[in-house]
Amino acid sequence: MNNQHLLVEVKERILTLTLNRPESLNSFSHDMLEGIIEAIHQAKINPEIKVIVLSGAGRSFSAGGDVKSMGNVSPNDVYDHIGLLNKVIKALRDLEKPVIASVHGFAAGAGVNLALACDLIIAADDSKFALSFSQVGLISDGGGSYFLPRLIGPYLAKQFFFTAEPIQAERMAQLGIVNVLVPAENLVDETIKFANKIAAGPGKANGMMKKLIDQSFTATLDEMLELERITQPLMVSTEDHLEGVAAFKEKRKAIFTGK
Question: Who contacts 93 (Cβ-Cβ below 8 Å, separation ≥6)?
Answer without folding.
Answer: 117, 214
